[in-house]
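okkk here we go again. third time trying to get the zinc ion bound version out, last two times i messed up the smiles copy paste (missing a bracket lol). double checked this time i swear
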Amino acid sequence: MSLPGASGGQPGPQRSTDQSSTITEPARAYAELTAGNRRFVSGSPRHPNQDAGHRAAVADGQHPFAVIVGCSDSRLAAEIIFDRGLGDLFVVRTAGHTTGPEVLGSVEYAVTVLGTPLVVVLGHDSCGAVQAAREVAATGVAPEGHLGAVVDAVLPSLRRAAADGVEDIDGIVDIHIAQTVEALLEQSSVLADAVTRGRCAVVGVSYRLAAGVVRPVAAVPADVASLGVSDGPSTPAAA
Ligand SMILES: [Zn+2]
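finally!!
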């Protein structure tokens, strides 16, 4: 079978796009995401690219401007918290945003085939996967079934946190997000190469469940997250 690619005609039905398909710069993509998050937080989402016209327009090709490697937590729906729509975000989710071959392959597909300029690791406070790993580390009792694979993937972050003297759960979550950014770049030479060439950036953000706000905790290159973290107005390009 063939995966849907970026190519394809642009069909004629009326479009309601906000031109996110033209975003090719990492910093611009990050600014677009944070602008959407500010709309969501303020209670004034625009729900862009969610109507029937746009659905038809993107049927033959996709140009997502960001890959989201997020935790599977049900309160972390990317299109909602970033106020985006169809064709905007290429989303890969696992409990605790753990990475493995399928995750890496999915990220590489978006970056190389679809030309997506930004990869965002999306973690959150009170993450159950991190809490489960901490429980295992404290008790030595391994979980049943495949949940052990999730815990095993989080344990290196717990060891890093312990080495740094970080004990609170949300501090550990921040470290785990940063560790996931590092892991993506270490395990995917394809992604690392795209970042080196300036075609892509990787940013780790932490989401607060109650407030709905995302906060950058790691970025490669470091300056890519400098846009969009201020409390200034949304970028003019946001629809
Ligand atoms: Zn989680």
